[in-house]
């Protein structure tokens, strides 16, 4: 193969990869992704589920306002439930302080467990049906 073609092909492959990488990294994170990243960075949990439950509520389609978080982390060992929730709330302070119209969290259901508790319970309870807002 001609060396000029080889160089051009390598440049094309590199530039295509860079464009895809750049576009993906420049995309704004969803609120769900932000919550997941902040909790992973803060706690390094053994298990983490961040579920957008907004669809269960009277909000516009595609909303990100109601979340269920299941986080299993031994950082919670010997801490009361309120102390665990305060730790999670502190990690998500920015999202909790924002108005819902600006990408803030309206509702956050927390299920904070140690590994031992997780093995005993097996999972978090289902969220209840929405009782308000016309749904």
- Judging by the overall fold, what is the CATH architecture of the domain at 29-121? 2-Layer Sandwich
Q: Helix tally?
A: 5
Biggest sheet architecture? 3 strands, mixed
| Total DSSP E strands | 3
What is this structure's SSE topology?
Layout: H1 3-26, H2 31-43, E1 47-52, E2 66-72, H3 81-91, H4 93-97, E3 107-113, H5 115-121
Parallel strand pairs: 2-3
Antiparallel strand pairs: 1-2
Written account of the structure:
The protein is of the alpha+beta class. The longest helix is centred in the N-terminal third of the chain and has 24 residues. It has a domain of 93 residues: GMP Synthetase, Chain A, domain 3 (2-Layer Sandwich). The model has no long low-confidence stretch (mean pLDDT 79). The protein has a three-stranded mixed beta sheet with strand order 1-2-3.
Write a brief caption for the model.
The protein has helices at residues 3-26, 31-43, 81-91, 93-97, 115-121; strands spanning 47-52, 66-72, 107-113.
Comma- or semicolon-separated keywords:
135 residues, alpha+beta, 3-stranded mixed beta sheet, 3 strands
């Amino acid at each position: 193969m001609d060396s000029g073609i080889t160089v051009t092909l390598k440049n094309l492959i590199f530039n295509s990869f860079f464009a895809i990488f750049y576009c993906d990294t420049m995309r704004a994170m969803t609120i769900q992704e932000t919550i997941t990243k902040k909790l992973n960075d803060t706690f390094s949990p053994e298990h983490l589920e961040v579920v957008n439950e907004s669809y269960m509520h009277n909000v516009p389609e595609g909303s990100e306002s109601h979340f269920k978080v299941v986080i299993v982390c031994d950082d919670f060992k010997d801490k009361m439930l309120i102390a665990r929730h305060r730790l999670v709330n502190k990690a998500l302070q920015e999202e909790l302080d924002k108005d819902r119209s600006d990408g803030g969290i309206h509702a956050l259901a927390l299920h904070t467990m140690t590994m031992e508790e997780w093995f005993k319970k097996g999972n978090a309870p289902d969220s209840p049906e929405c009782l308000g807002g016309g749904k």
